[in-house]
Design goal:
Blueprint (H helix, E strand, L loop, with lengths): L2 H21 L18 H12 L4 E2 H7 L5 E3 L11 H11 L1 E9 L6 E5 L2 E4 L2 E4 L1 H4 L5 E10 L4 E11 L4 E6 L18 E6 L7 E12 L5 H8 L11 E5 L11 E4 L4 E12 L10 H9 L4 E10 H5 L2 E3 L7
Parallel strand pairs: 2-16
Antiparallel strand pairs: 1-7, 3-4, 3-7, 5-6, 6-9, 7-8, 8-9, 10-11, 10-13, 11-12, 12-15, 13-14, 14-15
Length: about 325
């Protein structure tokens, strides 16, 4: 049998197998719709319109007034000490994953649109995300902060409890949800296993396992972008966050998503990604044409650094909630 005939013979079997696998997907594992005809935010947008009509969404002008809040009082869950397998880690990460973003428009847009990044439940009714996620662009004319779970249910964010743009941390209050909190932990060292559940480039429910590479203290890589994120809230302070480099994959859209250890604790959250490219080729001569040719030559990626804000930075925003008096 020739090779082409062999391929034709097995192709129906392959497609039949793929079809069977699609219908035999394990229960409780979501299958996300993608493709040219998919409208992943349509249901979210409709819910946002209803919430806005009912006056339940937090306007961006009110969030501006709350951006100077530095700390809040919360009672946090104790860190887990039982190691979880990969399936249980995925379940824990997905349940704790709360997308955070904006239902907004700029002066050049006619309709409000949905734009989401990541976040994670800190308590039943609070969520952590990046400081740059809760900062809006200067040309926004109407906007509302929203939270969305992995089942596409929208929850109103009622207030910003605490934020630090210098360390890229924010804690938000949410109405209507009873989320599965992710405990915070600072007990993490290079070589430890970590996982991340996020939506890179709007690819929903992307679960990645990796390890911790190192820790480093430095300001944001892109100071201009950080200053832009500060918007009307003044210059970002010189305070430097502690970063955790990991091997997990993520991209734009993953910001704020939890980085979780093998015990189900949040040890940080996604903040930056830095691809390092090859240096340009040395020109063959000193002519302008040679220099231009060297600059335009294809350059490969040497390494991509994935860097998270550590849980230590988040904890600086939290004051332990006093226990109720015993009588």
């Amino acid at each position: 049998m020739g090779r082409m005939n062999f391929i034709r013979c097995i192709a129906p079997l392959l497609f039949a197998g793929l079809s069977a696998m699609a219908f035999a997907q394990t229960p409780d594992v979501p299958v996300y719709n993608e493709g040219n005809n998919a409208e992943p935010t349509a249901a979210i947008r409709d819910q946002c319109r209803t919430l806005k009509k009912n006056g339940q969404l937090l306007d961006f002008k009110k969030t501006d007034e709350q951006m100077n809040r530095k700390t809040c009082e919360l009672k946090l869950a104790s860190a887990g000490t039982t190691k979880l397998d990969s399936r249980d880690l995925w379940k824990r990460a997905r349940k704790g994953h709360i997308r955070v973003g904006w239902f907004d428009k700029t002066e050049d847009e006619k309709e409000l649109k949905v734009g989401l990044s990541g976040g994670y439940a800190l308590t039943e009714d609070t969520v952590v995300t990046c400081g740059h996620v809760v900062s809006h662009e200067d040309d926004v004319t109407e906007g509302y902060l929203i939270a969305v779970d992995d089942d596409d249910k929208v929850y109103p964010i009622t207030e910003i409890l605490a934020v630090n743009l210098a360390t890229d941390c924010a804690i938000l209050k949410i109405k209507g949800g009873k989320f599965a909190p992710l405990p915070l932990s600072v007990d993490v060292v290079p070589g430890d296993k970590v996982v991340c559940f996020s939506d890179p480039l709007d690819r929903r429910g992307f679960y990645a396992e990796g390890i911790v590479n190192r820790f480093v203290k430095r300001p944001f890589l892109h100071d201009e972008e950080a200053e832009k994120a500060a918007g009307k809230h003044g210059k970002i302070s010189d305070e430097m966050p502690v970063w955790m480099c990991v091997t997990n994959d993520w991209a734009q859209g993953s910001s704020g998503s939890a980085v979780i250890d093998a015990f189900g604790n949040a040890v940080g959250h996604v903040s930056e990604i830095e691809p390092v490219m090859e240096d340009p080729l040395d020109p063959k001569d000193d002519s302008e044409a040679a220099k231009k040719e060297a600059e335009q030559a294809p350059r490969g990626t040497v390494i991509v650094f994935h860097e998270a804000i550590t849980a230590k930075n988040v904890l600086t925003l939290v004051k332990p909630k006093p226990e109720a008096a015993q009588w």
